[in-house]
Design brief:
The structure is a homodimer. The first copy, chain A, is of the alpha/beta class. Chain A has 2 domains: 13-61, Helicase, Ruva Protein, domain 3 (Orthogonal Bundle); 71-205, Dna Topoisomerase Vi A Subunit, Chain: A, domain 2 (3-Layer(aba) Sandwich). The first copy, chain A, is built from 8 helices and 6 strands, in the order H-H-H-E-E-H-E-H-E-H-E-H-E-H. Chain A has helices spanning 13-22, 30-42, 44-61, 78-81, 96-105, 132-139, 155-167, 193-201, and strands at 63-64, 71-72, 89-93, 111-114, 146-149, 174-177. In chain A, strands 4-3-5-6 form a 4-stranded parallel sheet. In chain A, strand 3, helix 5 and strand 4 form a beta-alpha-beta unit. Chain A is globular, with a radius of gyration of 22 Å. The termini of chain A are far apart. Mean pLDDT of chain A is 89; it is low at 1-8. The interface between A and B is large, with 61 and 61 residues.
């Protein structure tokens, strides 16, 4: 299969350029990029033109929320601006994708703090690379009573959680983290040993 | 998993709109659309802005080549314009994607004719819906000596091939079709009966 490189050609410069750019998106390769571009051209009015417009708008306006680090098209993101969100609880996540996942669950009504990654000795990510100093400032504000650490259940995520718990120890706020255990719908037979151990240790009366 | 519908939310209108549009691309769902949009925002200068521009350009200029039906940003596509391509051979394909596949093989040096589909009683696609009259005209031009039918080896594709062969019978051109047989790298054990039958019938002296 000649699916890579310069042979992925339509013969037309502008269309080729679009295919090459689309192929750089995560989840799309040269073949799916070509398919997507053909679909876009077929749905020029309904999909291609609006998509070009939406991309241009986001390209011109996207930035990080100066408060929480969420991506936004305004300096303060809609979540930080929303007066109905509880300002006393800050949920700390590694990435914007994690914030979006929390929002989809639609159960958390406080605000967020996006670190922009996790501490990693291997990748040379220290506390300065993350937004931990900013988090310490926010946690010191009078209205904040709880910081929830919603970091990934990975080595780096948990290292980061411990580091933050230490760093905020003198801020007079409650520091909690997401429960670990059997996921809803999870079957014991398919779970790894670590999850079963965590779930057993955190067992509760029924 | 709440992966569908209005819960796929970043909280930001412009970003949400972009995610919704991206999720309409073939091969992308809501989850991969969100991932793609995060990548786009991270690579704003290098990917998002150029992509917005390339899409706007293609949206403004894409059309079908009036000669062969290939997608193009000019009235006559680069392949039909190319004086080095042999005008005496026309390769008939169902879709633009098939034309691109032929071009990737980089072995055919003639010109194309894109039908825009195949005859299909089930889907109500008759000869008028395809570009068969235009093909008959082209095949009647003095310089054309051969029409290669490179249609899919499906029932509809082969029906279409027979129909075209009949329609062009009086045009005085050679009508050929792609060989059917064992694909390169193909293992007999994994091939369907139809392919093995076709390969056996078309067997050649070695």
């Amino acid at each position: 299969m000649n699916d890579l490189g310069p042979e992925a050609r339509s013969g037309d410069g502008a269309i080729e350029r679009l295919i090459d750019l689309m192929a750089k998106l995560p989840g799309l390769g040269p073949r799916s990029a070509r398919r997507a571009v053909l679909t876009l051209i077929r749905k020029r009015e309904k999909l291609l033109a609006p998509l070009a417009e939406a991309m241009a708008e986001v390209a011109a306006t996207a930035r990080s929320c100066i408060q929480c680090g969420n991506v936004s098209t305004s300096d303060i993101c809609p979540i930080c601006r929303d007066p109905k969100r509880d300002p006393s609880v800050i949920c700390v996540v590694e990435d914007v994708a994690d914030l979006w996942a929390m929002e989809r669950a639609a159960v958390f009504r406080g605000r967020y703090h996006v670190l922009g990654g996790a501490l990693s000795a291997l990748d040379g990510v220290g506390p300065e690379e993350l937004r931990i100093p900013k988090l310490a400032n926010r946690a010191g504000e009078a209205e904040v009573t709880e910081v929830i650490l919603a970091l990934n259940a990975t080595v780096d995520g948990q290292t980061t959680a411990h580091y933050i718990a230490d760093a905020l120890a003198d801020r007079g706020v409650r520091i909690t983290s997401l429960a670990q255990g059997v996921p809803i719908g999870g079957e014991l037979d398919y779970l790894d040993d670590g999850t079963i151990t965590a779930a057993l240790r955190a067992r509760r009366e029924v």
